[in-house]
Every structure is written in C-alpha cells, then in structure tokens.
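Checked the freezer inventory, then went back to the computational side. Two predictions to log before the end of the day. The first one is the construct we discussed on Monday; recording sequence and tokens without edits.
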Amino acid sequence: MSENALTERDRRFVAEIVGGESPPDAWVNAGFAATTAKKKSYEKLRQPKIVEAINAAKVKQQVRTDIHADYVLQTLRENVEMCMGRLESAHPVITYDKKGKPQVQQLKVFKHDASAANKALENLGRHLKLFTDQVEVKTHEEALRELEQRFESVTGTKPASAATTH
C-alpha cells in the first residue's frame, strides 16, 4: 500500500501512534475532533490501511534508530546482571603518583541494585507475557500453527496432523 492512500490526518495519526501517543491523544493531535477521540481512534486502529502504515513506520523507525527488540532485550538482560552484582562495571578513579601527577584508573565495581534489577526483570517478563492479565484471542488456525511449532521445537519432528492439514 502506498502512503498516498492515507489522508494527511491519517498520516499524522500514524506518526503520533508510532511516536508513543495513546490512540485518543493521537486522534486529537492529528486534527480529529476530541469529542469522538475515545471511540473513533480505536476504530481507526482496526483499519487495515492504518495497521499497515503503522507497521511500516515502526520498521522504518527501527532501521533509522538501530533500536530493535534484540537490542532492548539484551540491554535489559545486561542491566539485570549488573544490578544483581554478577557483572562488573568500570568507574574511572583519579589517583596521584609520588610526583603529584594524576593517573586515571578503572575501578571495577560489582553493585547490587535490587530495585533496578526488579524493573528490568519486570520488563523482560512482560515481553515474554509472563504477567499477562488479558486473554489472548487467536483463530483456530493460529492456535494450531503455534501448537505444531512448539511440538516440532520440542520433538524435532512435525506432528502427524500437520502433514495432512497443510
């Protein structure tokens, strides 16, 4: 789909969503009426052309910023390890020799910060959907495909039903 298929307000709505705004705020910021924001913004999010535009804009954003899910997850993992005192971090320390000349040395520190570790673990857990309070709805085909993939990853073979249904 070309971006030209979207109206100017649709393009602004997409940009606001990708920028992190809530759907009602994105709706108003894009120039739509505030009185209809709550209902209409969520309806707009279900339009295929809007979904496609948001997905395309997110891909462009990831390429442009070089920030993607792998980077975020790896950084969160490193943060957990550092905050639990399992990874050292280097801090510059200035010392002086006998002549009074300053020398910079790297002091290796193992620091325990339970609060920061818990926050990083919470974010990782949310990514893995360990703390989901919502029910995820899938079509029969999606659920079957997921079960077949899990079966294959555990056993190394395709389930017998996969050969006949696909």
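The second is the one RB wanted added to the comparison set:
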Amino acid sequence: MLYKFLISLYSIGKSSQNLKRKVENMVENTRNFDPENITYGNIWNLSWPVMVSSLAFTLLDVTDMFWIGKLGHISVAAVSMVGSFLFILISSMTLVSSGAIAFVSRAYGSKDTELLKKSISISLFFSILIALVLIVPSILFSDQILSFFGAKGEVLSQAKTYMRIMLLGFAFLFILDIMYNIFFGTGDSKTPMKLTITTLLINILLDPFFIFGWFFFPRLETSGAAIASSVSILIGFSLFTFFFLKKFGAVKPSFQKDLSISFLKTGIPAFFFGITRPVTGMLIYKIVSFYGDISIAAFGIGSRIIGVTFIYMDGLMMAVQTFIGQLLGKKILIKPER
C-alpha cells in the first residue's frame, strides 16, 4: 500500500510547474495569518486548531477507555500498555515533523517553490522510511517488546493482538502526520484540524460496533477497538491525501542529498526531547506491572488524564515554529521579546 501511495503521488503530475503555480496562488491568496504581524492573537489564530485536534485525540482516548473498560481491567491494562508503546512511535516522528515544519515554513515564507518542493519530497521520503524501520520490527517482535515491559498472561495475549492490528494502521498514520505538518508549515492549521476531527469521529462511532458486535458486526472486543482505529486511520489517510494533492499537486517522495543532513540536524534534538516522556512511561509500566494487572490499568487511565495538560503547549509550540520559519524565509529579524 505504501508503494502504491508513492506511485500515485508521482503519477498524478510529474511537472514541478504545477506545484509552482499552486504555491504562488497560496502565497497570494492565503488569509490564514500574517507572519510579519506578530501578536498573541495572531499566534492564537494559528495554534487553536492544533489544540482542538489534540483535545479531539484526548476525547478519543477517553471514549476508547470507556468502551474498553466494560470488558474488564485485563483489557484496559492491555490497551493501556500498547498505547504507551505506540506513543513512543508517534514521538519518534518528531525526527521528521520538526524538519518538515522548519523547512516547509522557511521555503513558503521566502516564496522559494523549488525549496518547498524539495522540503515536501524529503519529508514524505523520511516518513515512509521511518514507518518501515519502526513498524516492521515492532510487528515481528511485539511479543518480546511487551514481555520486556511487564506484560504477561492474558494481558500479553490481548496486547499482542491489539498491537499488531494497530501497527498496520500506523504505517499510514506516519505519512498522515507528515502531511499534517506540511499543511501547518504553510500556515494552514484549519484544514488538518477538520480532517483530524473527521477521522477521530469516525473512530469513536466505529468503536462500539467492532468491540461489542452491534447490529451485524462480530464481537471482537480489544481486537475490534484496534480494527476501528486502523479503519479510521485509513479513511483519514485517504482524506488527507486528497486535500494534500489538491493543494500541493503531486510530489514524488525522494532522498535529497543536499538537504538531508540539515533536515536531520533539525529533527534529532526534537526527537530526543520528544521521546523522553513516552520511554519513561513504558519503564514505569514495567515497574507497575510487579503490582498486578489492576495497577497497570489504573496507571494507563491516569496517563491519559495527564495528557490533557499538554494540549495548550503543543498548539503554541507548532504556531511559534511556523512563525519563526516563515520569518526566516522572508529574512525578517525580530526582537526576542516580540
């Protein structure tokens, strides 16, 4: 599927002139924000859609736990432990997403369509590469990974199946996440917000049907929750791809030697910063596992509640990144206090 996605991006339009025309139109017509007019209100206008998206993710977590909780503490423990590991994979994407926002926003600010094309291309390339590098081993060694972090017995059995199904969907989520950040780098935070909310609402609606077997659906319990998530990710991926192609045209994911080192230098510090919390969380799961499955379930629920506190900061962080990138592209220097 990833291969077909790559081919489809390339086959829809090979000419860079199409991208150039689209970008020039966006630069002239965009009303999302003015990077030269830096006010708190302006930053807020760019950041609130990210906060809404993050809030929607939190709502999904709470809803998932509500339904899973009806299956018992074993299921809650299994889903919580896998969720924490998946958070590590999501955080690993900062290696690419930070570079994507930095390079795309700077190219967009400078109206350099060639650099923008290269930035999008290399972002897509690294997202596919990291998806393969992280997801394939995670599927193959899911049993060993979960056992290392303290899963055993029925928790391990349910967690292993849930994790493998979720990872199939995550292959597309990695690319979706980069498209999200590319949109954001151009100052468009509302389009990805709408698409994200649509995807999450689909997930929320599908959950009870797959988990409990409502109507003609089979009762799949924790596996059903994973299937509902993976199906919604595929739908979201399709929506993001459609609007991405509509806005940017076809861009071939490719390795750009001249940009790769700078791209990774931007992403590596963000990667180590972003991965610290989820890795620590998984290590705590290992400690908590010594006190039984109920303790694992309780810790998992608590972790999701704590995640709400990061919603505000995530939005501001992405908004400031985009502002700074576009200002650098325009070669506008500002005082730090602004």
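For RB: The first helix runs from residue 2 to 11. The chain is about 80% helix and 0% strand. Let me know if you want it refolded.
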